[in-house]
Amino acid sequence: MDLIKVCSNGGEPCRSIHKELEGSCTPAKLYQTWTLYVYIGKWQGYHVAISSLASPRYKEDFDHNLEMLQKLSPSPYVVQLVGFCGDILVTEFHPWGSARDVHRHQPTLPMKLQLCLSYIQVLAFLHNSPVGTRVMCDSNTLEKTLTQFLLTEDFHLVANDLDALPEVKPGQGVKCGHEQLHGTFVAPEQLWPYGELSFEDDQMPPYDEKTDIWKIPDVCHWFLQDETSVRVKQKLRGIHHLCKNENPTLRPSAKELVDLYQIL
User: Fold this and answer.
1) Integer CA distances (angstroms), 128 to 50, 172, 190, 240, in order
2) Residue of 264, 237, 233, 239 lying closest to 254 (CA atoms)
3) Which of 242, 235, 177, 234 is nearest to 210 (CA)?
4) pTM for the structure as a whole
5) Among 95, 89, 152, CA closest to 121
6) Residue 176 CA: distances (Å) to CA of 9, 77, 149, 195
7) I need a surface site. Which of 52, 91, 103, 235 has the fewest CB within 10 A?
8) Which residues contact 52 (CB under 8 A, 6 or more apart)?
9) CA contacts within 13 A on the Cβ side of 244
10) What radius of gyration do the chain's Cα atoms show?
């Protein structure tokens, strides 16, 4: 598949691409997010996902997503960028949907474990990416986290929504948004640490990629669901206990977890 010619000035090539892609869209959207309308279409005979900006207010998120797709592609861990033009973004199409659709396909135990490993491999890639250590900030709930990944037909995951991947720079941390976070899915260091005092964003301490490690057991348990293998549960218990260390510096890295999962 050839890359769509890149353009940004809205000239004739851009109008031509818009016309061809829009003409190939099905009447119904695949899905919609705050940032994007996503359709299925065709380009040079291939099915593709066509994303258009939902509102100008999300232009910054749209641009960050595009920047990450450009800088992280090609990679087996990130959805393939086919091309872009103006407010249109074209990526490879995965008909099996997002990670939350996994159980529709009745995966076996080896497939479920493969998904756990695949999830960690994506995190390892993002934490050691060509553009620095990146944190998945659109992951404040299990449901939201699952929607960030697409399921391939050979039961692997690829990161798809990259509009909130801040970089952890040496000696610095990140903060995922400007609102107070709640719940047990997010890591302890993402919670407001000052008790009854009112939340103030500028007083919230930053954190790093180890927040992603904290969430791994919850995501993997969702993939496994009612799996009853005693051997698997025993092995995972020790690994996941490491991920849930209250001290983020004592949690293993994603690379270390890949090694542990590969010997299950």
Assistant:
1) 28, 16, 21, 21
2) 239
3) 242
4) 0.89
5) 152
6) 32, 22, 18, 20
7) 103
8) 36, 37, 39, 87, 88, 89
9) 11
10) 19
